[in-house]
Design goal:
alpha/beta; Rossmann fold; 236 residues; binds cytidine-5'-monophosphate
C-alpha cells in the first residue's frame, strides 16, 4: 500500500486529472472541455492567483510595496462559487471573472505567485473545491505540489508562435498579423521566464505537444487517458 507521502497514484480516491503547462498552452480551455466530456468538476488554480492579484490591486497599494501579508489580507474575502462549467472566484458578492483577464492582473500575477504563503492559500482553496469529487485541475504545479497522487497527469506544451497565435485569435476574434504574433510571443516568453520556478512538470506526467493538434484532438487524447485510468491498469 502506498505510504501517505508516496507519489504513487491512490486508486481509492476520486479521479484527479492534473493538467499543467506554460502560459497560453490551452490548459484551462482544454481542462474545462475534458471536465464537461467526463462530467467532472473543473478547478482553475490560475484564476485564484489572478483573483488574489485583483484584490491586491484594488487596495491601491503599489505592487512594488506588496508583501505576502498584504496580499493575503486583500484576498481574505475571495471564495470560489461553483458555476455551470467551472468555479468562479468571487470577492464578497462580486464575480471577478472579467477583471481577472485584464492587463493589470496579468502584469502582476507572477509576482503574487512567487509568494509561498499565497501559494499555500491557493493550494488549500483548490483542494477544498476538489474535496470528495472527481476533478480536472489546471495550473503550473497541480501534478507536483497540489495533487502528487493524481491518476492522470498531463504537461501541455506548444510552440510559442502557435501559443501566441491561438491567444490572439481568442482575444481579437480574427486572424492576427505576423507582427502582432511576434509581439505576443515576446510577452509570452517574458511571462514564461517569470513563472519558470512555479512551472513544474511531474516526473510521471505525460508530455503532450499540441502545436499540431486541434483542441478537439487534444481533448480526445486526455479523455481517453482519463477513461483508461477509471478502468484501471490494463491486465498483464
Ligand atoms: O494559467 P494562468 O495564466 O491563468 O495563470 C496566471 C498566473 O498564475 C501564472 O502566470 C502563474 O504566475 C500563476 N500560477 C501559478 N501556479 C499555478 C497556476 C497559476 O504560479 N498552479
Amino acid at each position: 500500500m502506498p505510504s501517505p507521502d508516496s507519489p504513487v497514484p491512490d486508486r481509492r480516491r476520486p479521479l484527479v486529472v492534473a493538467i499543467d503547462g506554460p502560459a497560453a498552452s490551452g490548459k484551462s480551455s482544454t481542462a474545462k472541455w475534458v471536465a464537461r466530456e467526463l462530467g467532472l468538476r473543473h478547478v482553475d488554480s490560475g484564476s485564484l492567483y489572478r483573483a488574489a492579484t485583483a484584490a491586491a490591486l484594488r487596495t491601491g497599494v503599489s505592487p512594488s510595496n506588496w508583501t505576502e501579508a498584504s496580499v493575503l489580507k486583500a484576498a481574505v474575502g475571495i471564495r470560489l462559487e461553483p458555476g455551470e462549467t467551472t468555479f468562479h472566484p468571487y470577492l464578497g458578492d462580486e464575480d471577478l471573472e472579467e477583471e481577472l483577464r485584464g492587463k493589470d492582473v496579468t502584469a502582476n500575477v507572477s509576482l503574487v505567485a512567487k509568494m509561498p504563503k499565497v501559494r499555500a492559500w491557493v493550494n488549500e482553496r483548490v483542494r477544498e473545491a476538489a474535496e470528495g469529487h472527481a476533478v480536472v485541475v489546471d495550473g503550473r504545479d497541480m501534478g507536483t505540489a497540489v495533487f502528487p497522487k493524481a491518476r492522470v497527469k498531463i504537461f501541455l506544451i506548444a510552440d510559442p508562435w502557435e501559443r501566441a497565435r491561438r491567444r490572439l485569435v481568442q482575444r481579437l476574434q480574427r486572424a492576427p498579423e505576423d507582427e502582432e504574433i511576434a509581439a505576443e510571443v515576446e510577452a509570452l516568453v517574458q511571462r514564461d521566464l517569470k513563472d519558470e520556478a512555479q512551472t513544474q512538470q511531474a516526473a510521471d506526467a505525460i508530455l503532450l505537444d499540441t502545436t499540431f493538434l486541434t483542441q478537439e484532438e487534444q481533448v480526445e487524447r486526455i479523455v481517453a487517458m482519463a477513461r483508461q485510468a477509471l478502468k484501471g491498469p490494463p491486465e498483464s
